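Annex B. Sample input.
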Amino acid sequence: MEVLTTSEMSKADQLAIAGGTSGFALMLSAGRAVAEAAADLVEEGAIVVVAGSGNNGGDGFVAAAELVARGRQVTVVLFGAREALTGDAALAARHWSGPVLPGEAASIGHPALIIDALFGAGLNRIVKDGARDLIEAINASGVPVLSVDLPSGINGNSGAVMGAAVHATETVTFFRYKPGHLLMPGRSYCGRVRVADIGIDQSVLHDIAPTTFENVPDLWAHVFPVPRTDGHKYARGHAVVVSGGIATTGAARLAARGALRGGAGLVTVLSPSEALAVNAASLTAIMVRPIDTAAEFTEVLEDRRLNACVIGPGASVGLRTRALVLAALAAGRRTVLDADALTSFADKPDDLFEAVKAMTEASVVLTPHQGEFSRLFSEMDNKHPFKSKLERVRAAAVRSGAVVLLKGADTVVAAPDGRASIAANAPPWLATAGSGDVLSGLIAAMLAQDVPTFEAACIGVWMHGEAGREAGPGLIAEDLPEVLPAVFRRLYDSFEVDY
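Annex B, continued. Sample output.
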């Protein structure tokens, strides 16, 4: 599903109007969708519509009129002067003959439902004074709240709280999600989100050419690797995971297990000699091979069948890890770099970025959490501290030449060509030690099976989230690979694949 910025959504409206649908017709459809959602949310009782002076307020006036036509008791609380309304919003207000109260906190009263039509997704200023008082009164009301387009006070492009924001029970948006519906903290303010069809033809997307997407199977189903009946393990790639020393071997084994369960035909842990016995004693279907130096790693990678690498989980920070990373990139391997592999370049990030860009076909995924991201891209984070997560990850992808995946409840994946995805399926209990190691292995499994790099990262993130949901509360990282068969089954069912 495409995700539209506020300017892209404005362009969608303009293209629809140029195609013969009036702006007021779009407002009527939006208002009716809001009324439908309100009727579903609260079946009886008084409704208060808190309207602003823009088109969001116009949607609120239309919804109020539609609800009255359905026999509901509705009052509009207008923030601003009615005579100051312009365009379609003014036309909508002229069609409303019910009560209009001043935009003050005391006007809200004690309804069964509040419809928040104060600000739309385009808000880009700090909310203060009377508007802030209204938002705080809505939040303090204790009744269900239905927000129009986006909870008032949330920036539609970044998901940021602009001083104060409405906590919605449900949000009705139009045509497509905005980034603020998926990025944190905005997503946590939206409640349930329904996307309403208001008559904008899908063909406008061709002219808009959006580059942001929700990370769902429709995004990458066309490249998802489905084993062939006549296939064999060697056709599904061979992933290698570089282990750390004897005290930190568990992370590499988690990544290796993720790679094997993720579909790689073979997986080998490359272990320091001192940790070989520990790794060998803990692994069965996963092979183990000793390497102690970057030179030995380069020799191993002369075997072209070893086509994907994971470096970083438990690897330790230092020159050895840095040398191993550069060896993998020099060998042209599809590589996932996580944790210690990233921090090892914190003082010399250009060494890493130049090595990535020197590859004949760059197929590198960087998987930092926020701390690692700030260390590796410190200049960017310091220079643009208020940029949205989406903007920062996009800039990092261009800077590094790699696909960059910034982990979190709203994991963003961005490619150097500008494409980006936002995930919204990760449960909170996925935040546990070792979870990211499994994610690295999952992505490597996709790379080993020749999935394009951006899609490989997106698939890994989505499956990781689904595995967390499947395992449920109380999960530990070891649970994640073991529930992947259930995730695969659901995917194959949706793809109508026999298994």
